[in-house]
Amino acid sequence: MSIRFVIGRIGLWLSVFLIVSPAILFFLWMISLSVKFEVDNAAYPPVLIPEHFAWSNYTDVLASNRFLTYFKNSLVVTGTATLLAMLVGVPAGYGIARMAAKKSAIVILIARITPGLSYLIPLFLLFQWLGLLGTLWPQIIIHLVVTVPIVIWIMIGYFETTPLELEEAALIDGATRWQVFRHVALPIAKPGLAVAFILAVIFSWNNFVFGIVLAGRETRTLPVAVYNMISFDQLSWGPLAAAALIVTFPVLLLTIFAQRQIVAGLTAGAVKGG
Amino acid sequence: MSSVFEARTGAADVTASAEREWRRPSYWPFVIPALVVVLAVIVFPWAFTIWMSLNEWKVGSPTIFVGFANYLRLPSDPRFVEAVAHTLVYTLLSVVLPLVFGTFAAVVFHANFRGRGVLRGIFIMPMMATPVAIALVWTMMFHPQLGVLNYLLSLVGVPAQLWVFHPATVIPSLVLVETWQWTPLIMLIVLGGIAAIPTEPYEGALIDGATAWQMFRYITLPLISPFLFIAAMVRMIDAVKSFDIIFAITQGGPGTASETINLYLYSVAFTYYDLGYGSAIAVILFLLIVALAALLLYLRQRAQWTEIGGGA
């Protein structure tokens, strides 16, 4: 029994190692690429830890004016699209849950299935017609396609599981529906708010397809900006990897610190934006 | 609970009307703002896409109603037919591989070991990370001369590959990235299923001397099959729609060797600005996802029937 236990443990740890190593090795290599000079990045056999660290890869990216503009664009687009989605999506999730209007969620499902590009064709024309191209508004509006369904979907799930007794008691005491929502339902659903917010932020931040069509030179978000770096700086891997790491760093940080919320949100709705 | 209320409403007629009012209050005001947004950014684009697909609609030239002409063009468009084939191969591989690895990972992560939380966090990083950033690093790793992958292959004596730079290996290489990226989501869904299984069946099986594989095959697998189905469905939808990774790494190349329907749709709509034809492709792409979802549902139902029939 005890030998069997030891073999089992060894097998388990081997399996764990096997499963986790692709992710660990990839991100280690990503970091390695980003801190190496071109000589080391072009070396064969490849070098994991260089003798001299090229911190300039990072400082160059951060010091460029353009990059800061793109960073700001990403913040504005993701921030606004997420806040707007919370503003309309949280009450909607509450309303749908209380009306037990599960069928209305089918719209959310269709939105989940539809490829992002399908929204782009008509909305591209609409934005052109409205003269909005060249501003950040087209991207903010189209990012709602990603954020609103996530928020509604997750909030329906949370409000469905919150107890009705308290709300009924408050209504009997003469509270309005809005007061009940604001002071009874919302505080109970706080964990759900966090989940919806975090997932909306991540999927909006990561979104690429809307940006490549709608973003101009001055209105690029970070993923689009990084993609454009590929076509121009094909050969300088260090700065490219550094830029890629900076773009995805906030998301990785969120993944580590909000793992519980992310797991809860993803397994509840199995939603993904875009 | 409700009987208490009924008793009270019966007692006093005055409160009855007041209570009827709060029992079924209208929650529409909560939903209307979101409804407006959904109508504007989801329903309107949908309706407009269908309308556009019935028109010859090119940027810079007048719009002509052509009925189903755009759809009739599709079967005789070799690039579209090829894209459908690429999409089906890409999707099949990108569903099956993550499903197998994800289930294995879920079984492992269900076990108790030190550092499980942290390792699970690292494990799910690939699917949360910005796809374009990841694609960029994979592109560097795929590089035939300087890439780290060929170096790793050389360590175990495998000859160097051209990865995404050769038509024959480009789709498997992209599937490798897709699998790396999305196995964690399958793991999370399946892990939810495994966590819901009671421990009694395993205890009984242990007493009967069952091996770990037997326990997995005859207890775990049947009980998690609903979760596997959901995982397969989610994966299928995302694989058909896959865009970021393919676009950032190969743009559908070399040539059109990795051009899926979604990639072709992008070219038609935003490189050639043939918006009518692009809309028709968008509609067909959506219908393909619905059709594949129906196929999965059908397969699941048939599997259930044979399960019942075989078990009896």
Can you put this structure into words, describing what you see?
- Chain A is mainly α.
- In chain A, 78% of the residues lie in helices and 0% in strands.
- Chain A has 14 helices and no strands.
- Chain B is mostly helical and 312 residues long.
- Chain B has 2 domains: 2-53; 69-311, MetI-like (MetI-like fold, Orthogonal Bundle).
- Chain B has helices at 2-11, 13-23, 28-53, 69-73, 78-110, 116-128, 131-142, 148-155, 170-195, 200-207, 212-241, 244-249, 261-270, 275-311; strands at residues 55-56, 64-65.
- In chain B, α1 runs antiparallel to α2 (13-23).
- Chain B is globular.
- Classes of the chains: A mainly alpha (274), B mainly alpha (312).
- Give the beta-strand count of chain A: 0
Shape designation of chain B: globular
Percent range for β-strand residues of chain B: under 5%
Structural class of chain A: mainly alpha
Percent helix of chain A, as a range, is over 70%
Helical coverage of chain B, percent range: over 70%
Please name the two chains that share the biggest interface, counting residues whose Cβ lies under 8 Å from a Cβ on the partner chain. Answer: A-B, 96 and 88 residues
Assembly category? heterodimer
Radius of gyration of chain B: 26 Å
Distance between the termini of chain A: 51 Å
Task: Give the class of chain B from helix and strand content and strand pairing.
Answer: mainly alpha
Number of strands of chain B: 2
